[in-house]
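User: Just a sanity check before I run the rest of the batch. Below are the structure tokens for the first item. I only need the designed sequence back.
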């Protein structure tokens, strides 16, 4: 698995993930579970939706 999520992309994913997670907890909604997806992709640095399209926001080229 190559890194395809850059630093800025990771920060944005963490902010969005936390917003969904905390919103879901506050309102007692299942939408909080959706917040786990951007948090996990930020944590591992790889997005499965970027791979088929060859997209990458990672500034370091992995070999």
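Assistant: Here's the designed sequence for the first item:
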């Amino acid at each position: 698995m190559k890194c395809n999520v850059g630093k800025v992309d990771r920060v944005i994913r963490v902010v969005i993930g936390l917003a969904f997670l905390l919103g879901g907890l506050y309102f007692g909604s299942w939408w909080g579970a959706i917040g786990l997806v951007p948090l996990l992709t930020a944590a591992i640095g790889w997005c499965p939706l970027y791979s088929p399209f060859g997209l990458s926001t990672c500034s370091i080229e992995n070999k």
